[in-house]
Amino acid sequence: MKHMTKIFGVALSLVLGATMLAGCGGTGGSANVDPFVNDYDPNKEYNIEFLGWGDAKEQAIYQRIINDFMAEYPNIHVTYDASSAGEYLTKLTGEINDLPDVFYLPDTEFLQWVDGGHLLNLLGENGEGADLEALSNVWDNAVNEYYYNPETYTLGKSEGAGLFALPKDQGPFTLAYNIDLVNEQIEKNDLQNDEEVTALFSGEPVTWEVFRSAMKKLLVGAGENVYGIPYYELEHAVYSNNATFFDETVTTSTLTSTAMVDAVQFIGDLCTDGITPKDGLAGNGDGADNAFYQERALMTFVGPWDFATIWEMDGFNVDILPVPYGPGPDREYGTEDDGKSTAFIGSMGYCVAAKTKERGTSGAALMLAEYLCFDESAQRKFYSFGQCVPNLKDMAYNEYIPDSLGIMADEGHTAPASRHIFIDIVDGFKDENDKIGGKTRILYYTYLTSWRTNLEDTINQSGLYTGEKTAQEVLEAFEPSFQASLDEMNEYWKG
Amino acid sequence: MEKHKDGKLVRREKITALAFVSPLIIGFVVFTLICMIVSFAWSFTNFNPISGRMKFDGLERYVELFTHPTYKKAFLDSIVNTLFLLLSTPLCIVISVLIASLMNSKKFKGKTFFRVVIYLPAVTSVVAVNYIWRYMFEENYGLINAFFHANIPWLTDNTLIKVAMIIKNVWGGIGTQVILFMAGMQNISDEYYEAAELDGAGAAYKFFHITLPLVTPVLFYTIITGLIGGFQLYADVELFAGGQYGSRTIVHFIRNYGVGQNLYGLASAASFLLAAVIMLITALQFKFSKWVQYTD
């Protein structure tokens, strides 16, 4: 027995020691921008793995598109696996030492994964690597998002940067409204000729003031448990008021800037007005979707993927709107620094695992990623199944918006009628007069994500929604810990 | 020669015994012990499995739990929430003992039927139970508010969410505990009750002086397992409370920061603190367990 205890003790110490030592010294990033080398040989057979997420319906759609890919390239055999969205990152992290050849990666996680050296640079030399010509027809922001230069720690396209993923889609996330419920309220409250209500549903962006006023009018007599919107997205308020969470270098907090304070106050005011319920930001997620689908909210935030569900709800008529905008830092509308209707964009990238280089499957993996990202027939299927708006600019403008092939009409999917707004958002602000655009969600820019959870918790718990505290008070109290988080995060990343 | 034969036999028996218990031991070593050791080692580092960074930081993660500007409040609040939610353990025990003694009474009719009804929550899917209770507590259209003609924000208020969770957990825990207490009560010899009745003892006297002392081993077991389970509460936070701030427990903190945000060092430190607290409380319970009557 004594002998056994001794052996056991030694074994434990060894495991402990090995664990402590394993990875020690790994204190810096290991992203690699070596050019992509195409190892694909059309005469060889390839078995590659692809991991994604989604419900049964999304998985079925992907399987069909992967089958098309395999029919086109019979020597590449793809094994497709998927989990629920909630469990996906846990599953992927569990496979970190033996990642699938191709996998989804949310852009909010991109920085850590690219820094950890798990993603293969898809830019090659002499025509090898990703097809840049085909990518020039994909939304600029969507492609640029996945460039990274590990030398300068720069996200986005820059000299010396590698391309570490191809965009799956580009969101976008904007306001949707229940057409019948809204019309009922318009009729009930005799708002047919009301200027503010008309402006709100005109398809053009309105100011925050018009939005609040119109919503208050619409909610009259709607019932005690019916709200204007179940919650309001923080980024939509911040971005649409020309505000930011931190400076361009992601080193200094701008939480207490006038524009930022006003954006958060706008969300608080929606609660005190009774347009959103008192749990404000906390009420997002499934609860918000259910409230909208059960006609307990006139509006909610949706992405193109939500239409797969909406299309199945007979008689549930929905259209989309651009998000309202604020007056900007000078707090006056009609000046140069006015906010613009800005929704957050960004979604996921198709990544090729760095290990495919050793496996000899990089070329085949890249072919699959490219097929999913910009193959015309695949993109057509994705939008017709209600998965996303097309990644291809020409398809979006010439085919998706006018439904020129009649694909959506044939399927009985005419909603959203204002789908050009989705495209306006993903195409970004083309010039000064462009009123609708999008900006990548904020977590994409930071190495760790805990600060965001903390900010939302702080706002939710602060009394802002009941009017006990102002946004100024809440953000001033939170800023020191936020700045400390930024400092620590940057030290961890670049230090 | 005889001795050698015996020795061989004993050795063979030992091997057979080892073969029987080895699946359990291997499972424990692989899935529990090694994980605990690895996690303990990580708690002294800033390990992030995605970036691959790991630097030995000594006790820094443990200190951060109580001082870090980002995590301190979340961690301390999760402790408060967990302790508050532990109230469901004594409540559940008290109610279970009362129901068990009522059902154990000879006058009680329909024992089998009520035993099934009371045990039903224990065999119902945790997910289904959580979602049904969530709908019952919903502020705007929930059954409970509808019944009281009230608009109580059960699911959004930081204190009320805990009260709702306690109610739900007491309901969910009663089934198993009633069965355990009934089994304990049925083991008590009738002679005690008959002797007490001859001395003119009433129902309350018999309950406090015979029943309760003789079910103390079951009571001790339910207190220990109840508290350990209470400290490890997680599913309810996600399924019932939807992650609402006032419901977040220590295990939720560990899951949220460890797996959710790749701060494995921090989550490991929190796990070890939690394990230490559970071990300490359990050890103290055993130390002060003289009130448990193991013999009748």
Task: Please explain how this structure is put together.
The complex is a heterodimer of chains A (495) and B (296). Residues 20-25 of chain A have low confidence and may be disordered. Chain A has helices at residues 2-21, 56-72, 85-94, 110-115, 132-135, 140-144, 179-188, 195-200, 208-219, 234-239, 258-272, 286-293, 307-312, 356-359, 362-374, 376-384, 393-400, 407-410, 420-426, 450-461, 471-494, and strands at residues 46-53, 76-83, 102-106, 147-149, 154-155, 162-163, 166-167, 174-178, 299-302, 318-321, 341-345, 348-352, 436-440. In chain A, the strands form four sheets. Chain A has a five-stranded mixed sheet. A three-stranded antiparallel sheet of chain A has the order 5-4-6, with no helix packed on it. Chain A has 21 helices and 13 strands. Chain B is mainly alpha-helical. Chain B folds into two domains: 2-62, no CATH class; 74-287, MetI-like (MetI-like fold). Chain B has 14 helices and no strands. Chain B has helices spanning 2-42, 60-67, 72-85, 88-104, 111-123, 126-137, 143-148, 160-186, 190-198, 203-214, 216-231, 235-239, 250-259, 264-287. In chain B, helix 4 runs antiparallel to helix 11 (216-231). Chain B starts with a helix and ends in a 9-residue tail after the last helix. The model of chain B has no long low-confidence stretch (mean pLDDT 90). At the A-B interface, helix 1, helix 3, helix 4, helix 20 and helix 21 of A face helix 1 and helix 13 of B.
Task: Provide a concise account of the structure shown.
Chain A is α/β, with parallel strands linked by helices and 495 residues long. Chain A has 21 helices and 13 strands.
Number of helices of chain B: 14
Please give the CATH architecture of the largest domain in chain B: Orthogonal Bundle
The CATH superfamily of the largest domain in chain B bears the name MetI-like
* Low-confidence sequence ranges of chain B: none
Q: What would you give as the CATH superfamily of the largest domain in chain A?
A: Periplasmic binding protein-like II
Distance between the termini of chain B: 48 Å
Unreliable parts of chain A:
20-25
User: What is the second-level CATH architecture of the largest domain in chain A?
Assistant: 3-Layer(aba) Sandwich
Number of strands of chain B: 0
Structural class call of chain B reads mainly alpha
Mass-distribution shape of chain A: globular
Tally of contiguous helical segments of chain A: 21
Number of domains of chain A: 2
Question: Helical residue percent of chain A?
Answer: 40-55%
Output the helix-strand order of chain B: HHHHHHHHHHHHHH
* Subunit arrangement of the protein: heterodimer
State the end-to-end distance of chain A.
49 Å
**Count of structural domains of chain B:** 2
Provide the CATH topology of the largest domain in chain A: D-Maltodextrin-Binding Protein, domain 2
Approximately how much beta-strand content do the residues of chain A carry? Answer: 5-15%
**Tell me, what is the CATH class of the largest domain in chain B?**
Mainly Alpha
